[in-house]
Write a structure and sequence with these properties.
The chain has about 300 residues and is mostly helical. Helices cover about 35% and strands about 10% of the residues. Helix 1 packs antiparallel against helix 3, helix 1 runs antiparallel to helix 6 and helix 2 crosses helix 4. It is globular.
């Protein structure tokens, strides 16, 4: 990504030349957590780590993502994470002027903003830092829990008023902590015991403690550091050298899932690229704003150019 200026002295900022992605190599994040081509848990932990690192870099430049959602995040088979639709970012200039996002979708809006919208207000002038932290936690939860949403729950505490998801969010029906028997995970949810305990603790902090205290939600940097430690401790399967699994588990869950014993297959995500259709070609021709987890300098570039606004 390079800056463009209107003058030879590079004082009149005009815009960016941004990367163009080959969309045959990327899938939207929601395609990672479901279906037969979904990667194993260890690989999804790496994707979660890279996602947290990207968000942490944006926040370190004092900007916000705002519309942080599953369709605005792309992943390739190397677990690299790319943010798109970056024109909806919340940008803070050096002078303190704020260009608000005003964008967001229900599943990734925190309870305080759902209440705000219910009161007839808009998101046009809402600061989105705490919202970003909530959305990041939801995306990591869905990524590691096969797409299940954190407040999806069953049990005697689910009254008719809680039949749909938004009231579950505002009522804090997170079922993976002690709720006194009021709430239970849905039957289609995977066992959260497969998730490393430090990650489970951050989930509880985000969705229980942070429900009424947004300032206590884990930061993107805390997610990054936690996931980096978890990924660094992944165990090598004794039956299949391809498999990795979280260190708190006593055996490889991939081998346990296979009725015929340890599998030798290597899962590739996304699937190998094929000849693109005309629609895919048109889609890949879009100019996208790209931020990779390993490219920390990008956040500095965004910040430097925003000071010229």
């Amino acid at each position: 990504m390079a800056a463009i200026y209107e003058d030879s002295d590079c004082t009149l900022f005009a815009g960016f030349v941004m990367a163009r992605l080959d969309m045959r190599l990327y899938d939207e994040l929601h395609e990672v957590w479901g279906g037969t081509s979904a990667p194993p848990l260890a690989q999804r932990l790496v994707i979660a780590l890279n996602l947290a690192a990207v968000v942490a870099e944006v926040h370190s430049a004092s900007h916000r993502i705002g519309d942080l959602r599953e369709r605005n995040i792309l992943v390739n088979r190397s677990c690299e994470v790319v943010l798109v639709d970056c024109d909806s970012f919340e940008i803070w200039t050096h002078s303190g002027e704020v260009f608000y996002s005003g964008m967001g979708i229900g599943d990734y809006l925190p309870p305080e903003l759902l209440h705000w919208l219910d009161g007839g207000h808009s998101l046009e002038t809402v600061e989105r830092y705490w919202s970003d932290l909530y959305a990041l936690a939801v995306l990591i939860f869905q990524l590691l829990m096969d797409g299940v949403r954190p407040y999806s729950a069953t049990g005697p505490g689910i009254t008719p008023e809680l039949a749909t998801y938004p009231p579950k969010v505002t009522s804090c029906t997170y079922p993976y902590v002690d709720t006194g028997g009021r709430f239970a995970p849905p039957t289609y949810a995977p066992d959260i015991a497969l998730i490393p305990p430090p990650v489970q603790q951050l989930f509880a902090c985000a969705f229980v403690t942070g429900h009424s205290h947004p300032e206590l939600r884990p930061t993107a940097a805390q997610w990054r550091d936690c996931l980096a430690e978890v990924v660094g401790q992944l165990r090598l399967c004794s039956q299949n050298p391809v498999h990795r699994y979280p260190a708190h588990l006593s055996a490889c869950p991939l081998c346990a899932e296979s009725p015929s014993g340890p599998s030798s297959a290597i899962q590739s995500f996304p699937p190998e690229p094929t000849q693109p259709s005309s629609g895919t070609t048109e889609h890949s021709d879009r100019v996208l704003a790209v931020i990779f987890a390993a490219m920390a300098a990008i956040a500095a570039i965004i910040y430097a150019c925003s000071t010229m606004l």
